[in-house]
Amino acid sequence: MRKAKVYYKDVLAGILTETDDGEFLYQYDENYVTRYPGQFITFTMPVTGELYQTNRLFPFFEGLIPEGWLLDIASKNWKINPNDKMGLLMACCRDCIGAVSVVPITEKNEG
């Protein structure tokens, strides 16, 4: 299982999870739901307390991953299979263009 914190403008918005079964989950943070009910990370995922669940990486997050020659460089540099979308997202999107950042959760900083 792999997890990442999703930030919107430096505010924790939620947690993205890839389960061991290859399912993807996104849950907005409780505090974010309360404080920023209209500040969604994407139109397709409005702020709610409900769990978002799918069998492939959500299109919004997939859109953050580099493409073309930049994907080739990232894949080779971090030794990540180009088909490992969650791995690429966690490696490349800590400081991407725009308001959303994705920060891997390791056992040390889990929470």
Task: Explain what you see.
Helices cover 26% and strands 26% of the residues. The model has no long low-confidence stretch (mean pLDDT 91). The longest helix has 11 residues, at 68-78. The two termini are 14 Å apart. The radius of gyration is 14 Å and the shape is globular. The protein is an alpha+beta fold and 111 residues long. The chain has one domain (2-105).
Mean pLDDT over the residues: 91
Percent helix range: 25-40%
Total separate domains: 1
What is the topology, as strand order, of the major beta sheet? 4-3-2-1-5
Computed structural class? alpha+beta
Note the main sheet.
5 strands, antiparallel
Strand content: 25-35%
Runs with pLDDT <50, length 5+?
Answer: none
Overall form: globular
Number of E strands: 5
The secondary-structure element order is EEEHEHHHE
Question: Termini, distance in Å?
Answer: 14 Å
The number of helices is 4
- Rg, rounded, reads 14 Å
Fill in the keyword field for this structure:
alpha+beta, single chain, 111 residues, five-stranded antiparallel beta sheet, 26% strand
Brief rundown of the structure:
This protein is α+β, with helices and mostly antiparallel strands and 111 residues long. Helix content is 26%, strand content 26%. The chain is globular and about 40 Å long.
